Amino acid sequence: MAQLPHAPARPGASRDGNGNPVERDPVVFIVDDDDSFRGALTNLLRSVGMHVEAFASAHSLLTANWPDAPACIVLDVRLKADSGLTVQNDLARAGVELPIIFMTGYGDIPMTVQAMKAGAVDFLTKPFRDQDLLDAVTRAIGNDRARRESQKSLAQLKERFQSLSAREQQVMTMVAKGLLNKQIAAELGLSEITVKVHRSQAMKKMGARTLADLLHQAVVLKIREAHV
């Protein structure tokens, strides 16, 4: 498929009275080429207060602007122009990580397995109960919210690591490899006291209260094998 989704739009975030960013309302993207069924799903989800963007084709979804908010996709597996599984693959190649809930009136075990292995969070066979869809969407939104929080935490951790001086980064990397202060001092040509100072400063800037915290951060950042 030639068209790929645009990167998520990132307008200025709303902030609360304390200046903290306020998360935007979750969005559910519906893709189904049956007008009446698409409308029914849209009305159902909006009736419980969800924001919905509905599309009649995969092309419309893939060329839409993506909000900077928790979201999920409710996708018909048998569209007129495209297979929902193909759309799933296109989204994955484009780096779109939104949870997908598949719908089909002709589901079979191989198709379900393929969709689940590719990351689908649920697979609903038409006709399904309203509550089944609501439960699936709630789970999917929860998954995406957790993913976004994880990415945010990682970005903050990377930012703190970049705030370290080059020497502090070296010391943290060598600590992560299991070297003792005296070993680091010998390898870098520094005094052990100086290494302790750099290590203490690195822990302070990284917000690590203990050595275990610092080692965990190094694992998350994957700097254990970084070159010194």
At the fourth CATH level, what is the homologous superfamily of the largest domain?
Answer: Response regulator
Number of domains: 2
Helix content: 40-55%
What is the CATH topology classification name of the largest domain?
Rossmann fold
**Estimated share of beta-strand residues:** 5-15%
Order of helices and strands: EHEHEHEHEHHHHH
Spans of at least 5 consecutive residues whose pLDDT stays below 50 are 1-16
Largest beta-sheet details: 5 strands, parallel
Span between N and C termini?
Answer: 43 Å
Helix-strand category: alpha/beta
General shape: elongated
Show the helix and strand layout.
Layout: E1 27-31, H1 35-47, E2 51-55, H2 58-62, E3 71-76, H3 84-93, E4 100-104, H4 109-117, E5 122-125, H5 130-162, H6 166-176, H7 181-188, H8 192-206, H9 211-221
Region (Disordered): 1-25
Protein name: Response regulator protein TmoT
Domain HTH luxR-type: 157-222
Give short descriptive properties of this protein.
CheY-like_superfamily, single chain, two-component regulatory system, transcription, alpha/beta, Arc Repressor Mutant, subunit A, 228 residues, Tscrpt_reg_LuxR_C, Rossmann fold, 5-stranded parallel beta sheet, DNA-binding
Question: Would you kindly provide a written description of the structure presented here, covering whatever features stand out?
Answer:
Residues 157-222 form the HTH luxR-type domain. Residues 27-141 form the Response regulatory domain. InterPro entries: CheY-like_superfamily, Sig_transdc_resp-reg_receiver, Tscrpt_reg_LuxR_C, WH-like_DNA-bd_sf. Pfam families: GerE, Response_reg. GO terms for molecular function: DNA binding. The protein is α/β, with parallel strands linked by helices and 228 residues long. The chain has two domains: 27-154, Rossmann fold, CATH 3.40.50.2300; 163-221, Arc Repressor Mutant, subunit A (Orthogonal Bundle), CATH 1.10.10.10. The protein is built from nine helices and five strands. The protein has helices at 35-47, 58-62, 84-93, 109-117, 130-162, 166-176, 181-188, 192-206, 211-221, and strands at 27-31, 51-55, 71-76, 100-104, 122-125. It has a five-stranded parallel β-sheet with strand order 2-1-3-4-5, with helices on both faces. β3 (71-76), α3 (84-93) and β4 form a beta-alpha-beta unit. It is elongated and about 75 Å long. Mean pLDDT is 85; it is low at 1-16.
